[in-house]
Amino acid sequence: MRVRILFFAGLRDLAGKREWEYDLTEKSILGDLHRRILDDFPALKEMKGAVRLAVNEEYSRMDRPLSDGDTVALIPPVSGG
Amino acid sequence: MNTPYGLREDQIERYARHIILPEMGGVGQKKLLNSSALIVGAGGLGTPAAQYLAAAGVGKLGMVDMDVVDLSNLQRQVLHHTPDIGIPKLQSATNKLAAMNPDVELVQHETRLMSHNALDILKDYDVVLDGTDNFPARYLINDACVMLKKPLVHAGIFRFDGQILVIKPGEGPCYRCLFPEPPPEGMVPSCQEAGILGAVAGVLGVLQATEAIKILAEIGQPLVGRLLIFDALNADFRKVKIPRDQECAICGEHPTITELTDLELAPCQL
């Protein structure tokens, strides 16, 4: 199945991308995708737990199953004001 | 002469465009005139927010800021003008807001919000807007609002992006439900290096004012439990549903944070 990921704010700098796509096996969960993202974009590891993942506009836990066509947003906190 | 809704004649005219809105009416306008808002930070978010709250006739508007106006502020901090360079931001802001709308009582809190003064300063306001530029302040304001059960309109900006969330303690998630801890120091580039499109600060600041007005006039659906993300380069708005975290350190069922603390401030001024 194909899943699109979106990087927001400072993550775009760390990843060097605004978005990316993954082909995943059926029965993949968000945690599987998260691991692959960290492998491909190791700079993101430095943010540690400070990034929220949302699947199709809903903040999700790592055990959430993914489906073909899902969009996963990676959202860091931003402090500017 | 008494007019409907207990408003003066000049107020009926000043707020006519509000009063004619079915959802607002004279009743809603009166609510605004009888309410109060505190804006922490008279900068990129705080100044556009203050403009629209003052224009809308929020009865009492407090602002917290210790800085003086700097030339690099003028690209986005719309209450500050070239002749104001070097004068305290609160003074600069108050002058313009008073001229805009004499109905509004303006309160200046020329101080830095810290754990020892936050509860005292926030407690007398109906809603708080976070217009600060650093994580320690953001977590402090969140924690204080949760403790005081005060609605908080949180927003943050970075380059071309912005985020906004309404925190209603007890009803929806707080900032820590979304981001339990600040990112490791140094991970978010220094503000002078990152940059910000001035107009993006304006968009988010005015969204904050809009949400505050909705809360005070009791109209519409504030962004409780919904994080609105704005990506200016693509002109995309995206809403992400955020649940309350039952294990949140401050607003969860068994809070571990029971008092305010001052996190260390990274050298970062946007």
Care to give the gist of this entry?
The complex is a heterodimer of chains A (81) and B (270). With 81 residues, chain A is of the alpha+beta class.
What would you note in describing this structure?
The complex is a heterodimer of chains A (81) and B (270). Chain A is an alpha+beta fold and 81 residues long. Helix content of chain A is 21%, strand content 27%. Chain A has a single domain (2-75), classed as Ubiquitin-like (UB roll) (Roll), CATH 3.10.20. Chain A has helices at residues 10-15, 30-40, and strands at residues 2-7, 19-23, 52-55, 58-59, 71-75. A five-stranded mixed beta sheet of chain A has the order 2-1-5-3-4. In chain A, β3 (52-55) and β4 (58-59) form a beta hairpin. Chain B is an alpha/beta fold and 270 residues long. Chain B has a single domain, classed as NAD(P)-binding Rossmann-like Domain (Rossmann fold, 3-Layer(aba) Sandwich), CATH 3.40.50.720. Chain B has an eight-stranded mixed beta sheet, with helices on both faces. In chain B, β1, α4 and β2 (60-64) form a beta-alpha-beta unit. In chain B, α4 (46-56) packs parallel to α5 and α4 (46-56) runs parallel beside α10. The N and C termini of chain B lie far apart (48 Å). Classes of the chains: A alpha+beta (81), B alpha/beta (270). The interface between A and B is medium-sized, with 22 and 45 residues.
